[in-house]
Structures are given as structure tokens and as C-alpha cells.
Amino acid sequence: MASSLTGQVDPLSQYQNLFPKTGKPRTIGNLDSFIISALSPAGAVVFTNPFDTAKVRLQLQIKPNKKDVGNVNNNQIVYKNSLDTIQKIYKNEGLKGLQKGLIPAILRESSKNFFRIGMYDPIMGIIHDSKTGSAPAWKRLVAGSMCGVMGAFSCNPFELVKTRLQSASAGKITVGHQHNYTGTWHALKCIVRDEGFFKGLYRGSVLSMCRSVVGSGTNLANNDERIFNAQSRLARFENFRYRVWARISHVVRTRYYNQPYDSNSKGKLYSSGFDAITKIAKAEGPTAFYKGLCLYYFLGILRRQLNEYYGYLDRKDSFLFFDANNDGALNLSECENLLNGVFFNDKEKVI
């Protein structure tokens, strides 16, 4: 059994009698990958959502004395930095304020990573035969990019709702256009009613998918635990080169999602992603694209725990198979049968 963490082979995996039910060690399959790919970021978002809320507020804030492009409090800086943002939100809105948009954030992470992470191994299995050795960098980049596009499209409605709910505030700490939604379901209904299904819910999806081609393509290729060679180091270098674009597009997408729209479903502030980049850069300078980034995943923890659980089941099956008298212990005769049956394949002596 190849270890997902080290790439080494477990020498016991060749002895089928140690795995009487399955004939081989249990491993994480495609269905398992889909499930943990959805659960791990959904769990992480509970802890990271306050930082994400602060990030959205910072990205919506526009520097004073510039042309008004949607900021309610255009004559003052409301938030100074991430820590100041969190403190002010908690002071004025409490813990509930910091966890605004939590439900769509969980739905976003689950739907996004169900495809973005969960589909990586199945796609790699289609485009590359693992028996021929490690996949080349371009195949891993292609698989990662395809996963990113699918994930970005699937989560776009929840990303849109999350951004608008997290921007909701009142009084002196208000930034950005206020949509006044009461919750996730109300936001979805209002968007479909006022802006249309595809035009509304999938607004900005092209921008998100383009961003994911870069981000997911390089990140997933880097995190392919089966590859430890010079090509993965090259991919990490490429990821560094694209990181600037990923940050820029994230800020632009937040502004684009949150702007108000007219009756013809046209943005009142930005007509396109490129228009948003131009206006933000002109009004605020390049530093506007580097505000409040925070992201954590629990994927590795769940994968390790699931691998350990499967190992426990394999050991339990093997013990019960050789414990002929079911007394919860292996006596001398049972141990002899285990050694002969497993290592010498003497089937006549296996009970």
C-alpha cells in the first residue's frame, strides 16, 4: 500500500491473508475524497469566517477624497487594518457580526471543494496512467485547472451571497453598498427576482473561473502528494509568479459582486472585471489589491484520520480472522497459523 504522505510501500500489503475481507489494505477512494473534500473546508470556515468578513470589509473600503465608486462613508477611513476591522465589527455588531455570511460560506466551501479537490484524483486517473510513473507537470496543471473551473462555477451563487451578507453593517462602520438581506435564503430569492437566475447568481463567474484556472491549477499540482521531483519545485515557482494576479482578482471579484445593479442588470459602478480593475487602481492605487487574505483547510487532518481508521479496520479484520476460538487473544496455535498462513501462504494450516 503506497503511503499518501511518504510515497513508500507498506511491505505487509502483499500478504492478502492479512486482509481477509478485502484482499488488500483499505484505501481512500473517490467517494471518500469527495466527502472529505467537502467537509474539511466547511469545518475550517467556521474558524476563518471572521477573518473573511474583515477581508470583505477592507476590500470594499475606498480611500477618502477620491471619486465616489460606491462607498457609503466616502469621507473617512473606517477600518485601518485587519485587526482594527475585527475589533470594530465585534464592538458594534458582536460575534454575530463577525460570523455574517457563515451559512453561505460553508455552502461555498463545500460545493467548491467537492469539485476542486474531490475531482482531482479521478481526472488524473483519466488523463494519466499511474503505472507509467509520476505524472508530468502539465497534466497536473490541466487537472488542477479543470477542477478549479468546476469548483468556481458551482460555488458562485454562495460566494455572491456571502460577500453581500458580510458587507452588511450599519452606522459609522458601514462600507460598500448595502443590500439589506435578512439571510441566505432571502438573498438568493432577491437576487433571482431582481437580477435573474444566471445573470444574478452567476454574476462574476467568468472572473472566478479564470482566477481558479491560475490558483487551483498551480496549487493542486503542488499539493499532489504523490509527486516529489524537480517538476513540483517548478510548479511551486510558477505558483509564486501567479500569486499577484490571484490577489488582484480576489479584490476585484468582491467589489464586482457587491455593487448595486440597475433594472437592466447592469452594474452601476463597474461594467466589467477589467473596468473594476481600472477604477480601483486609479482611485486607490495598487495597495488596494492586497487587503486581508486568510485561508485554512483541514483536508490533511481528515485524510490522515480516515487512513488511520481504515488501518484500524484492517487490523481488526485480520485479528478476528486468526482468533479461531473468539477469546480475544491469539494463543500459540493461532499465532503459528498466522505466521504460516500469511508469510508462507500455507493455506492448509490457516484456520
UniProtKB/TrEMBL annotation:
This is EF-hand domain-containing protein. PANTHER family: RE38146P. Belongs to the mitochondrial carrier (TC 2.A.29) family. SUPFAM superfamilies: Mitochondrial carrier. Keywords: Membrane, Mitochondrion, Mitochondrion inner membrane, Repeat, Transmembrane, Transmembrane helix, Transport. GO terms for cellular component: mitochondrial inner membrane. It comes from the Eukaryota. Coiled coil: none annotated. It is found in: Mitochondrion inner membrane. InterPro entries: MCP_dom_sf (IPR023395), MCP_transmembrane (IPR018108), Mito_Carrier_Antiporter (IPR051508). Solcar repeats lie at residues 28-126, 135-229. It is a multi-pass membrane protein.
